[in-house]
Amino acid sequence: MYIITIITITILIPNVQLARPTLKLTFNPDEKYMSWHGQVEIQCELLNPTRAEDSAQLWHLDLKNGKRTPISRTLLASPSDDAAEIFKNNKNRRYEYVRKNYIRIRSLQMEDSAKYECNCPDCEEQLKGVTKDLYVMKLSEATWNFDQGWPLHENTKTIIKCQSNGFYPYIGHKILRDNKEMTNDGKSSLSNTNPFPQNFLWEATITPTAEWHNTTLLCSITQGNQEQTVSKTLDVLFTPHFLTCAERQYVDPRKDQSSIECSYRGNPQPKLTWLRQSDQKLLTSDNGITIDIKDEQKGKYRSIVTFDRAKLITIPLLPTNKTSEENYYQQLLNNGFIVKLTVNNNDKGTRLINIVRDASQIQAKFINSSTTISLSTISLAFLLILHIIYR
């Protein structure tokens, strides 16, 4: 019996010695970022005190001036003149004393953000204090600004800015253009005069081209655990021009339907018109001809002329010296077309299109041009070698 008792006491003594005093600081709810107008309870505890008279102490540390204030019933009920402003403005009793080292804050404001510390200054055993940051979020929308006004102009430098003012706390930001990150293309700044509120600015100098038109900028600023995002689709004015408008295009006059086309771009949207080469008369969508304009986005367009053979062969021939043409459709194709690009009746480009009935004629022209370029290159290289030899 005595042996069992001695063994039991021997086992329990080390366990009692292991239960050393510790400090515990808790927020309820235990969230990194508190919501505006929410509520939080803050408690400081000393667990397993060595002496009964040992007691923990809860402290408030002001983020703006670093002032350290012990939390007490008197502080919340009748603060002194040198108390922190947040306690002197506690007239509506948002700060509630629950019990010693235990407070409740209702209707949280950004100004309630602070650092709290739990320590035991009079403990026999020196304990390291525990600290936690209380962040109360205040959100603010992000906006885009452009120093050269709107819309943007091609090849004109402009400063673009994303900013958000009067929020807390700043965590990070990201800038994208059509889902491609461009954060490092600019510079950012954050006001640090006071810990809160904060003002954020990101800016970059760009020289927009036609490729920037209809692209989308996105600015995302992380404020606490929330993201404030704003997007802006760019409107860039740029000079109209042809993209592809081949001077020789293939049409099979035996097919029921055939088409020719030209692609172009510009902002504002230019006007593309088709005319007959023979008399420069405007082609319109009627009597066997259909003209479609397809918007291919970002200021690119495609104009497609579709011929309806069955309808076009019924139209009377135009007066001409040529007698070999069998019908109006054949005559129309033989004469070819003029394509004009205009903006507000101002000419921005013209193309002459001739129709070929053999697709190989288009390829042959390309091959001949490539051969000519190759022969010219070889000849130039040969002359250069001779020059080096005879120097």
UniProtKB/TrEMBL annotation:
Signal sequence extent: 1-19
Location, primary (coarse class): membrane
Localization: Membrane
InterPro entries cross-referenced by the UniProt entry: Cell_adhesion_signaling (IPR051275), Ig-like_dom (IPR007110), Ig-like_dom_sf (IPR036179), Ig-like_fold (IPR013783)
GO cellular component, one term: cell-cell junction
Residue ranges of coiled coil: none
Annotated keywords: Disulfide bond, Glycoprotein, Immunoglobulin domain, Membrane, Signal, Transmembrane, Transmembrane helix
All copies of domain Ig-like, residue ranges: 21-118, 240-314
Membrane topology term: Single-pass type I membrane protein
Gene Ontology molecular function: cell adhesion molecule binding
Membrane-spanning parts: 373-390
Keyword Oxidoreductase applies: no
Biological processes, Gene Ontology terms: cell-cell adhesion
Protein name: Ig-like domain-containing protein
Species in which this protein is naturally found: Adineta steineri
